[in-house]
Design goal:
This protein is α/β, with parallel strands linked by helices. The chain has 6 helices and 12 strands. The structure holds fe (ii) ion.
Length: about 280
């Protein structure tokens, strides 16, 4: 039986900010829940950035409102924190609001397993070392899961690790260092240790992409409320990932996208030295 996963990313509930239409988030969450309940997926994944942050008190309220919106979903839900969930709030505060642990874990789902890689997504604001910093413990967790993987594995995170190009991205073309961990190359090396088919799924970059690195397809899903690709209207993006011998991914809404990829256990030949 294929594994069917409904996905929502970068909900960004709150005051509209730049091209993020946070004012549309809750009505769209109601529509997402209606769709997900009709589709009866095996689970729902929330890829993080549930809110647009303001301050601790406001963010607690916004996160609670999103958690309430998720209560309309029938399927089991697994959440990941994005950087905006962590600007003013701790992981523990998010856990308390969502009613689930937010540590990295592996879900055994029959033919597939899902590595919920809840790597630290906090952006350091210290001018000396501004940006993401991937804790060594998060890297080691990923490496160990990949080394010991016995079945096809979906790796889910907020921040993508493909290192894909950001040309044309409203947020990241001119700020590519905030689109990825500085340690992305080590995360990709950890993925390369797997001897099973691997698919990676992330949010954060607010566009639909497929990037294949070392035989591993990396997917990023458009934000629910982003508008930079949709002429100012919220993208209304939600997706279904169906995992069997292939991975079929369909994103609905104003920024539709569809891909079918066939991940294999084999990795690619190491690149040639400069010539
Ligand atoms: Fe986001």
């Amino acid at each position: 039986m294929p594994l069917r996963i409904a996905i929502v990313a970068d909900i960004h509930h709150g005051t509209p900010s730049h091209t993020k239409r946070g004012d549309a988030a809750l009505p769209l969450m109601a529509r997402f829940a209606e769709w997900a309940n009709a589709e009866t997926p095996d689970m729902v994944l929330d890829l993080g950035d549930r809110i647009s942050d303001i301050d601790e008190e406001t963010d607690l309220r916004l996160e609670r409102e999103v958690a309430q919106a998720f209560k309309a979903v029938d399927a089991p839900i697994h959440h990941i924190c994005g950087n905006h969930d962590r600007d003013h709030l701790s992981v523990a505060q998010n856990e308390e609001i969502l009613g689930q642990r937010l540590v990295s874990e592996v879900l055994d789902c029959g033919h597939w397993q899902i590595a919920l890689w809840r790597a630290d997504a906090k952006i350091c604001r210290d001018p000396e070392r501004r940006g993401f910093a991937l804790p060594e413990t998060d890297l080691l967790w990923l490496s160990r899961v990949m080394q010991s993987a016995q079945k096809p594995t979906l790796v889910v995170s907020h921040v993508p690790v493909s290192g894909h190009d950001q040309t044309g991205n409203y947020y990241f073309q001119r700020n590519p260092q905030f689109s990825r961990y500085p340690e992305s190359d080590r995360a990709r090396q950890a993925l390369a240790q797997a001897r099973v088919p691997v698919v990676c799924l992330a949010g954060h970059v607010h566009w639909n992409t497929v990037t294949t690195v070392d035989g591993i397809p990396h997917l990023t899903q458009q934000s629910l409320t982003e508008s930079f690709t949709t002429q100012g209207a919220p993208a209304e993006a939600w997706g279904m990932l169906t995992l069997s011998d292939t991975a079929h991914w369909q994103v609905h809404g104003r920024d539709p996208f569809e891909a079918r990829v066939t991940p294999t256990a084999g990795r690619w030949t190491p690149p040639l030295a400069p010539f």
